[in-house]
Recover the amino acids of this structure.
């Protein structure tokens, strides 16, 4: 199963249920609790904790939204001002106490080869442009120490995350150059199987010998191995090969919502040994089984309208809007997101949790978590459920900072031990790279 992707229904965004809801979100916290003899409302406590420790989010697709909306024109869409058509702008970043962000430089898997590489470079360029235009708000971060420094300076520590191995066109040299540009994680596979890594879906493929070499080279570079969007076999293979902790930049728990994009319990149970984190995502179709079923029905309709109106996007959009109006999707809720966090804490432990909202990469939203201003409401819910201040600090950012530090240590050791890998996919897998169109495995 693949969720409807950004590209499929972006045009419908403006008319869907996406609404900025700062006021709505703050209503979640009400009941006071006693902290060291002082009664403090959970939302106030949440905000105090978020001033103390950076909330580091694993995945935000603002660069892609800017590409789709205005071809990266920050004059037309000035995020220093309120931009209600987006889920991310600076006023809401400040309201939500975002302390660090892995900005996704996603490009769709329909792009392969050189086209994927150049589009990803344009996405990286957009992140740099955003940092240049809003220096009071953002600071580039490559290391855990950079994140802490940026947070201390009152800025959002900005990391780059490559979403999908198609962005490196089966080339370790390209991987290394993305690392030099500041990419601190790469999702191994996105959308469809690659020649060297399996994507979430039918789960027929894991990591090829070249795929394992990619993981080793990422360890050497200090780039985090991101297992969101990958097949369960790829997750298991990567956990066997990696010397550094892995991340799931935006995934939730499969035992709570049974979709392939979520993490199964047998993988969760391996995290204490590996040291990695699952950054729980707010994608409605990964949170609630009812929302997942509704999203599958919508996906089928999108496919049908594509066949029905192949050359008329306006008619497609109109048909989809009408269909959605007569078939309202059940909403996933903030409490259900907290249920995923509860489950992962039970199975993997409090040291293996983080948050990865996927804001601006989704076409519908969880009730109570509509945009980047809403994080404090989720933190307040955890406090109400009895999470201690120490627990919350770990989920906000301390766990991810620990993972980054450990990956940096592994990189230093491996860089001292040997040269970069010059292996090729031709040598390791017997698959030609140049000039070969990639055929999805299903
Ligand atoms: Zn994604």
């Amino acid at each position: 199963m693949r969720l409807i992707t950004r590209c499929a229904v972006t045009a419908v965004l403006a008319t869907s249920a996406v609404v900025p809801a700062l006021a709505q979100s703050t209503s979640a916290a009400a009941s006071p609790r006693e902290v060291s003899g002082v009664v403090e409302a959970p939302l106030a406590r949440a905000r105090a904790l978020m001033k103390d420790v950076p909330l580091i989010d694993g995945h935000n697709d603002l660069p892609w939204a800017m590409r789709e909306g205005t071809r990266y024109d920050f004059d037309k869409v000035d995020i220093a001002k309120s931009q209600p058509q987006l889920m991310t702008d600076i006023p809401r970043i400040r309201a939500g106490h975002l302390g660090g962000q892995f900005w996704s430089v996603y490009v769709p898997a329909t792009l392969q080869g050189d086209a994927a590489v150049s589009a990803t470079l344009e996405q990286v360029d957009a992140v740099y442009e955003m940092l240049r235009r809003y220096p009071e708000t953002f600071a580039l971060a490559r290391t855990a120490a950079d994140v802490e420094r940026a947070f201390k300076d009152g800025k959002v520590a900005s990391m780059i995350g490559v979403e999908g191995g198609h962005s490196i066109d089966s080339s370790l040299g390209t991987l290394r150059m993305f690392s030099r540009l500041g990419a601190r994680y790469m999702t191994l596979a996105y959308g469809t199987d690659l020649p060297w890594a399996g994507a979430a879906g039918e789960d027929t493929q894991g990591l090829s010998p070249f795929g394992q070499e990619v993981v080793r080279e990422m360890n050497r570079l200090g780039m985090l191995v991101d297992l969101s969007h990958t097949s369960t076999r790829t997750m298991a293979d990567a956990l066997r090969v990696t010397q550094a902790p892995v991340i799931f930049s935006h995934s939730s728990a499969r035992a709570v919502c049974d979709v392939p994009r979520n993490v199964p319990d047998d993988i969760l149970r391996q995290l204490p040994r590996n040291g990695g984190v699952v950054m729980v995502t707010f994608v409605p179709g990964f949170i609630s089984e009812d929302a997942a079923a509704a999203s599958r029905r919508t996906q089928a309709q999108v496919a049908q309208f594509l066949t029905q109106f192949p050359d008329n996007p306006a008619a497609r959009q109109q048909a989809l809007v009408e269909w959605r109006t007569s078939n309202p999707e059940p909403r996933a809720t903030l409490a259900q997101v907290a249920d995923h966090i509860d489950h992962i804490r039970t199975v993997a432990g409090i040291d293996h949790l983080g948050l990865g909202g996927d804001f601006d990469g989704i076409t519908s939203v969880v009730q109570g978590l509509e945009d980047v201003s809403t994080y404090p409401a989720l933190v307040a819910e955890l406090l109400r459920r009895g999470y201690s201040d120490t627990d919350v600090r770990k989920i906000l950012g301390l766990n991810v900072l620990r993972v980054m530090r450990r990956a940096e240590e592994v990189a230093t050791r491996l860089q001292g031990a040997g040269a970069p890998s010059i292996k090729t996919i031709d040598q390791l897998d017997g698959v030609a790279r140049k000039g070969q169109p990639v055929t999805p495995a299903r």
Observations:
- Residues 389-417 form the longest helix (29 residues).
- The mean pLDDT is 90.
- The longest strand covers residues 156-163.
